[in-house]
Hints:
Radius of gyration: 18 Å
Number of helices: 1
Bound molecules: zinc ion
Strand content: 35-45%
Helix content: under 10%
Largest sheet: 2 strands, antiparallel
Number of strands: 4
Order of helices and strands: EEEHE
Strand order of the largest sheet: 1-4
Amino acid sequence: MSNHQLEIPAKKPGWFCVTCGAEEVFHDAQVRWCRDTQDWEVVAVLDDHWCEACANAGKEGETVFGELEDQQEVPV
Length: 76
Ligand SMILES: [Zn+2]
């Protein structure tokens, strides 16, 4: 007996920009070097965050955490 119903993966929430709809949201953070993994590890995520796409365009995007709709309406 098999179930032919397709499983639709649940949308994962994340940071995105309500100004332009991009998911290129950067966050200030403190990192420190980890000798074991030979990589930087995040110690703390700081308050400052921004949309890199808007920053590249010389704008200030408003970034929020939530579910990004497929048909994101971009406010003018
Ligand atoms: Zn943006």
